[in-house]
Structure formats: structure tokens, C-alpha cells
Amino acid sequence: MTQGRSTQEVAVAQVVVLVGRDRYGDPWHDHAATSDAVATLLRADGHDVTVRSVFPDALDDVDRPDLLVVNCGQGPLDPAHADAWRGFHDRREALVADGVAVLGLHQAANTFGDDPRWAATLGGRWDDDVSWHPPLGAARFRVVDAMHHVTHDLDDVDAVDERYADLLVADGAHVLLVADVTGDDGATRTHPVVWVAPGPGRALYDALGHDVRSYASPSRRTLLRREVAWLLDA
Description:
- The chain has five helices and eleven strands; from the N terminus they run E-H-E-E-H-E-H-E-E-E-E-E-E-E-H-H.
- It is an alpha/beta fold.
- It has a single domain (7-231), classed as 3-Layer(aba) Sandwich (Rossmann fold).
């Protein structure tokens, strides 16, 4: 199996990983554990990784990282607390506007629902009315563009994970991997699960990563390394 670029070929970068909790977390995802798995992999590649739980001031002292990784979900959005989070969302958007690359993982399609700018950055979102997934289990994610830098010569990805279906994907998003999912009607349909956002900056969404078993997969780790290398233009 193709393992992608060696770690020596990826320039050291400043990376901030945002970890979901409370307002941007839920009982079904251990964002701390999966964020640690991501941070461990990136540190092994020599990157300088800062892991931050999501609080209103989580980005206040962040200068300008090379990459912002969002590994957050969606809890109860109490409108009474919306004002407290406005500065966080403005700061996040300012980093994107300044050219900071963005990687959204798994539930990132279903986070920051109180700020529509996030879905625009990510190039898509989860919609509670239509999006869904079959039970967690052994899954295959097919490469559909073998010419992109992320997926060039990359085999399909196999992992214990969830296969997200019927996400709302923006026009102009560049789909790299898909999942084949059989619905209640017995029909199997193809659903985008990894895509490059339309821009203007570099942003990529990767729907894999429900729990740490996903990151135990060599092919999934290779995909993540490829994504990070491309986002950093390395």
C-alpha cells in the first residue's frame, strides 16, 4: 500500500487542534481521545502541535498557526450564551481570512452551527433533517480522484469508522473520497466524505475519525498525513 510522503519531506509547521466539549461536544464522541491521536501523529512527523479545548477564549492568544484542525461536535446551543462565543468565531474567521489552512475532522461538519461562516469555510455541513450514517463498523472509503496531491497513488482507505451519508456539500467542492452506503430502501448510493472546500483559502473536510479505532488504520493515517502535507503546501 502506498504510504505517501515521508515525514522528512513535510516541513515543520505550527498546528492548533481544537477539541470539542460542552457546547461543541456530545456524549457519543471522545473528542479528547481522537484529538490526542491526531496530535500524536502530527508530532511524530515533527510538527509543533498545540491542543486546545474549545472555550470562548481558546484562540485569543493564538498568533497565526500554519494549520487549524477542528475536531469538535455539536451540543446544545443555548441562545443565552451566543454573545460569549461571538469573539471566538470572529477570531477563527480572521485566521481563515489571513490564509491559515483548515482541516475539519468527522463531526466538524456538525459543529459551530451558530456561525454560518464555518460551513462556508468547510465547504459543506451535516443537516439533522437529511444526514445520517449506518452503524459504526469496518468500512471502506473509495478514492475517486487519483490525480489530486492528497490522493495520488493512494489506495482506498479501510478503517473501523462511521460512513457519513447525505451531507450537504457546497457547489465547487472537490470530492476526493466517497463511501458507498445502502439505505433503508435497499439501494446503495455514493456519498462524498472527503473533499477540498471551494476556497478561497486551503480547507479540507475529512469525515473519518469517529473514535481512536479509525486512527489505528495505517491507510487512514496515511490519508491524514497526505491531507496535512497538502494543506501546508509541503
